[in-house]
Structures
1.
Amino acid sequence: MNRFLQRQVDSLNMPGLSIAFINNGKIVYSNEYGYADIENKIKVKSNTIFEAASLSKTAFAYFILKLADKGILNLDTPLYTYLRNKDLEYDERYKLITARMVLSHTTGMPNWRQGNLELKFTPGTEFSYSGEAYQYLVAVVGHLMNKTPKELDQEFYNQVGKPLKMKHAYYYWNDYISEHRAAGYKEDKGVNKKQEINKMEDFGAAGSLRTNAIDYANFMIGIMNGKGLSKNMIKEMFKEQTKVPDWKSTDAWGLGISMKKTKYGMRYMHSGDNGDFTAYFIMNREKKAGFIFLTNCEKARALFQKLEPYFIEGSIN
């Protein structure tokens, strides 16, 4: 595995990589490759922090299910009854939007607004991936709990990070991230060029989680085992909520996670792309197996295409 991954890092010209494999509900392999900062010759370490990009959504979905278990909100109560969305009040259909729709991407909101915020369809009737909707849900939760974004990040850590052994998992920028973060890179004519720091100084449920592979793998083990949630909520998370008609990699969406039927069982996964940070995780709940990796460049998809056959077939090309 070490040789295989080193070849991939070299051939793909990846700056850095943090990766972990899970088997039988335990981390059986983890490692770090390459550089957190090429220019300063700082290598990736076990505590190097990467942007998890849209893998943030799955962890946030779990947080919402925890809050639902506690009665802080209901998955099927229209969100406007908790907090109005002033940007959508001109369209009465927005009053149909619920937390369940946000987590299953059926709100009708765009991924990110381009100008005025508009609904693409009547909420609950179709699938349309939306980070924008996640941020509306953040505002609702902050309002219900009377928390600032920074305080909400601490609440996430108390209710999700610490119980699921995520030693380092932060949505809101802090000093630890500043000291231990990997620099982001994009390749230009064969050369990895360092990108400007995007601190994302807010609680970005859609993409601002900063963590590493071992900590995210611990989160995956937690949700595989249904830890910290009622049986009903864990069932809802992994149940088909809506069909996804036009994605080759996905048949349906649960709550915060994609689903695809394979001959080896149901494959749950999420990918993430912040441009200069990309990531993937994949898991089989029945076998309690999977993997997670994060990289500080745009090459995650290419690596995933090499790793998935290994996960499924047990063979390395």
2.
Amino acid sequence: MSYPQQGQQSFPQSQQGGHAPAPVNKQGPVAQAAGLNMKRRNPVGAWLGLPIITFGIYGLVWFFKVHKELYEYDRRVGDSSVNAILSLLFGAITLYIWPLVVYCKLGGRIAQAQRAAGLPATCSGGVGFLLGIFGFGVLYYQIQLNKVVDRYGDTPPGQQVSLVA
């Protein structure tokens, strides 16, 4: 698009033979798709309480469930729940590189879910990785996931919700 020179009159695109600009919605984002709401979990319980009680088994369950819920929430991203659990179970084959990659990608998937909910993407795989080194990764990721769940208020888990991005 060229800008008019001083003294020239500017005409809207529709008069110049182009396309008229799309109408702007001043009420906020418009729903583009739909998905199922995720379960809100207590971050401290998912991070410390249940893994201690179950001798670490809940960590595997949490990792699988989070990936499954993210897929059911936004089906535009692939279902990587089986890939996630296999990466943890057979990670030694790749010298634990594969689980680290999947763990970092989880941050990107959560950020995509935040964008789909109409929220700013505040989750980072790098921050999750660094906090994971010190044992706080699950806590960080669950807090970020709860932002998406809280966006829909009292909508129960498994209930259809609208996605905006």
3.
Amino acid sequence: MRILKYLFLLLLLSLVALSIFVATQKGNFTIERSKIINSPKSSVFNYVNDFKNWGDWNSLAVEDSLINITYSNNTIGIGSSCSWNGKQGNGELQTISIKENESILQTMNFNGNSADVSLSFKDTLGKTKVSWKAKGKMGFLFKVLTTFNGGADKLFGTMFENSLNILDKKLDYEINTYSVNVNGVVKKMETFYLAQTFTSEFSKVGKNSGIVFSKITTFCKKNNITISGKPFVIYHNYDTKNELTKLSICIPIKSPIFLMEGSDIVSDTLKSFEAVKTTLKGDYSHTKKALDKALEYLRVNHLRPDTVFSHLEIYSIGKNDIKNPSKWITEIYYPTSQKFLYKPAVTLPKATEEETPKVKEGNEIPAEF
């Protein structure tokens, strides 16, 4: 009996000593890992910047088949977030700042432990160096966990390494799997649509398009306007030398609308026209290849493009339909000079600020095609 008391006392003293040891360990931690991802920088950035993809590349989710993930209504850019509960605990991640195609700053809470998280993206000859850093503070229980698992750097570092490896493999297929097919000359049927027109640098088209697509869609819902088809963009001019374009972001509607003037949204009609159609299946980073192939078809077949506008892109299957970039479908139309009519715009009434938010230069929302 006395031996049992001594053993119990020894165990108790060991636990006290362990607790004191753990409590005196540093609670602050900094972990950083980097990897070269075999995909273009903009594609990697856009994929990571959308929380809809988080469960497909973060090892916490990939290695836990029973994990439950909840996403915010907006999953892209500043203010977007996701939370989860799984076999390794509960957590929440929120994006607080981004620099387009350069960096993403987030805050994380995992099992009661907080951290500031940053991801940076650097172009390396067509590939991307992703650097992932977390800096935070651990509570007592997490100190115990890391003590018995080689420390915070090993525990979190392994998770970072596994996640970056998964990201590379995922994107190597999803971003780099694509096809371009020139369908030939087709007739594009008449379309009624709502649109907003502006001039943009090539690099900011995606960001601003996402804002405007969302704005027009919200306008339709508020005013009970029936959307009839997939979103599209009319590129009125396309200056490759200066990388500038004037474009109209368009949502097709069932019938034309004639209302009061004063809104930056207009109601317009695109009359039927003949065009060279080219279909891109895959990520938007391959759009230039599709444009080049379409222009080559025009040249080889001695077809004269109609200069009323440069070209039109329809997002038949986009990221709102399916999150796999390899399955996105973009239809590109270069109008020829035959049988083309274009009806002047009719302006819509001036809407409230809530109905028609302005496109701000600093807003970091990528396209929602």
